[in-house]
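Chapter summary example.
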Amino acid sequence: MHKLNNPTLLAQCARIKTMIEKVSQIPEYQENYYAKLYHHWKLSPPAQLWEIEEFEKKIGVELPIEYVYYLTQVGRGGASPGTGFFDFPKQNYEPDCITGVSEKLSCALSEEDWCTLYDFHNHIEEPGTICLCAMDLTFEAYLIVTGPNRGRIVYLDYDGDCAPMWPKSSPDFLTWCENFFSELLAGYNIMPTWKFMWQEPGDETALIDSFQKAEDTQYQREVLYSFCKFKSLSKKTLQFLENVQSLELQEEVADVLQHFQKK
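The structure predicted for these 263 residues follows.
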């Protein structure tokens, strides 16, 4: 039985709920394609804990605790990145699809490694995942509920011809949600939703820190391009970009600087 008394997670849920309310009051976001077509930044009523526990008993899997907090403290569906969360529990869930562990999602493979192992594949819902919403074009957001990446969000291509995408700096469901609404309220350019899917969240200082801690060049490239979400750059950030030494990244640095010169 879940005990929903974690003050950190309760506070995070409260922040997310407040941010959704603020977003719903901003006129420009009312015209967002997915919001206008699907959820209008409205939340469905929260789920009851007994509903979640009955669902878990039915499927034989305990849901990640961050998701349980969201369902009971924020809402069972509605406002989200993309098309809006499907109301919990989604009616056509097959227990066999949720149990088991996905070999493909047991580690976060690079696009190159993924293509080497799997290449093009027919899309089916991976074992141990729950589909949350559609994101953009052919990508859907899934919550992993079993295996080593349990609790993480992953974007899977509905056509099956692209490697999974893993949202940056989002180790769990609640952080992923909070990152999205924080970016939106900060006025960053994360729309259409495919931009949010790969961009690094946070302000300029956070992006510099992420770049410096990145363990591979591809991640650094994506962090560099994430600077384009800002309306302008500080002198400190411009100096940082100009001081990037790696020859492999000079094209990306030039592209980012040119982006702001055009502005």
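To summarize the output: The longest helix spans residues 7-24.
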